[in-house]
Amino acid sequence: MRRRPVVITIIVLAAAAVITVIVIAIIGPAGSGDRDASTSTVERSSEVPEFSEASTPPLPLPADEGSLVAAPLPESGSAEGDVVEGFPRDVIPVAPDSEVDSTSLAVEGDRVQAGLTARSTNAANAVIDHYRAVFTSLGLTERETDAVAGSTALVFTRGADNITLTVAERADGTAYTVVGVFTAK
What we know:
Layout: H1 3-27, E1 77-80, E2 98-108, E3 111-120, H2 124-137, E4 141-145, E5 151-158, E6 161-170, E7 173-183
Antiparallel strand pairs: 1-2, 2-3, 3-7, 4-5, 5-6, 6-7
Region (Disordered): 31-82
Keywords: Membrane, Transmembrane, Transmembrane helix
Transmembrane segments: 7-28
């Protein structure tokens, strides 16, 4: 019954991600919990741009550069305050001047989900710049995605592999979460 612990681990990781988003929403950008109404909502345009085939470039094809992780994959596991054994540190390194809150691995077949939650004394832009440099050097393509007010989220993809970085500025630095989903080749 190896499947049951993996499913439970995935559920725990999903719950941890939701809790992180809620904590970031409560703490707010300055870590004080004080937010005014102008920073508590996500601005969205109500207009949809008109579609034109002539002006729309084709979507890029998935990169065929191999996977970011290789088989055999490590065992599922987690660690509090440390990096779990088998964590793909070469793909998701801990940012400089950071303290690790937790790390996790959930492995199912040839797929692995790696999660890192940490705090840095550096500003959010420095943490973003660090991971942007690491991920783009690995051939990942960046795009912004929706995030809770007071935080920034970016998604980096290459083929079937993807990494999501979420950062929130705090009074004492930056809280951040990095979650990668990879297929081993």
